[in-house]
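Practice problem. Given the sequence and the SMILES for pyridoxal-5'-phosphate, write out the predicted structure.
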Amino acid sequence: MTQPYHRIFNFSAGPCTLPVTVLEQARDDLMNYRGTGMSVMEMSHRSKPFETILAQAQSGLKELLSIPDDYDILFLQGGASQQFTMIPLDFLNPGKSADYVVTGTWGSKAVESAKLLAPVDVVYNGKPEGYRTAPDWSMLNFNKDAAYAHFTSNETIQGVEFHKDPTCSIPVICDMSSDILSRKVDVSKYSLIYAGAQKNMGPAGVTAVILKKDMLSKLNQNLAPTLDYKVQADNNSMYNTPPCWSIYLCSLVYQNLLVHEGVEGANKRNNAKANLLYNVIDSCGGFYKGHADQKSRSIMNVTFTLPSEELTIEFVKQCTADGMDGLKGHRSVGGCRASLYNAFPLEGCQKLADAMVDFAKKKG
Ligand SMILES: *Cc1c(COP(=O)(O)O)cnc(C)c1O
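Answer key:
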């Protein structure tokens, strides 16, 4: 089918590419949502249609991740970054500390926010080696009295990912912003999972929080209501107006993934996509260097450098001209970053892989 619009291969780290069929559905619903005569942007969040949208978003996420019944599913505002504050604010009780595993920039930002509120122990810090590794869980020593252990399952900037669920005797909290729904996880191993929507779930403006209900008994008192997990849970994420449009888009993304074999299907496709690029990185005689250690390589964000800054600029420019956007690496890592979230197509990876092989042949 010819489409009335031109789409490029968008390798952006987030906000990023969304499934075309979801965008088409949103377009079709824009002026008149399923016979209501108005857009989701225009309807009361207390209306029946929106109640249904919220319930569908919750049940979609629940089904995709097999979330057990003793978890609340919240849709909050303030981005993943606000969770960096809300978590210690709510769970770091007076006299308690928390353990942080830092494998990249986002984990380090989480520490900076938490430190403003209470003592923090960094039990693993990948910074001295340039953030290249996700350590084995068995290597880490947690304080048995710590309120929680926090880690980042996928470091979006460095492209460093944990490929195993945590094993830890204290409550585990995970920033899953950039790899949620990319693979199967055992939710029961986590006390809280949070993820900004704008990587794998939808547009910016909403953050999903999957919270084990027993955590609600450990909260600090006298919290500001919008920053209190119990207030948010008691009000089903509607203490105040939720980000209705973003939640609606997420619900469409969840439905779309459910008809495409769920997270197992996504994982198969994501592995195939990432392998195309890692194979090129490993087979061009050292022209490209992967940033992350092999065993910690991210399936979502493939990070690599070229022999020089000039070559990097030339390569990125050439890709942009050829319909492949968003490949410039984060300034802290340099080189290139190809973000391959769920909605990113295999053809785009093949095209980039071919361009990389060509470029290395010409310049290597
Ligand atoms: C993008 C990202 C964030 C920040 O998300 P905001 O919604 O911009 O606050 C935090 N953690 C990770 C792992 C991310 O990828």
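Check your answer against the key. The mean pLDDT is 97.
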